[in-house]
Structures are given as C-alpha cells and as structure tokens.
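Protein: Bacterioferritin-associated ferredoxin
Species: Pseudomonas turukhanskensis
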Amino acid sequence: MGVTDGQIRDAINEGCCSYRDVRNALELASQCGKCATLAKQVVRETLTEVQSSQAALAYPANFVMA
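Structure follows.
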C-alpha cells in the first residue's frame, strides 16, 4: 500500500493509540503483511516518544502555585 513511517507517525499524532488503530486508519499490512514487523516497530517508537514528551510537559520545572 506504500505506507510510510511518516504517515504512521502522523496517524499517531492525530489520535491513533495502537498498532491496530494505525492499521485500520491507513489500511496497513492489508496486502501481503511484509511491512507489519517494521510498522509495529515504528508505532512502538512513536508512542514511546509521544508518552515521553507528554510526561515532560505534565510538570514543567518552572511551575509556581498561585
């Protein structure tokens, strides 16, 4: 289907929360499935990055209680 890693990352940034969500949104691995292993890796890495960046934003170092 020609799905790129950029499209996978975009799908996650737009709300997909799992490999299954990405697969359904992009029709990923719907033909032969050879790309599934690499796609799962990209999904895992991207979700980890998103979670890390959200955790970093949750409690900024300069937070001052008013």
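Remarks: The helical segments are 5-13, 19-26, 36-58.
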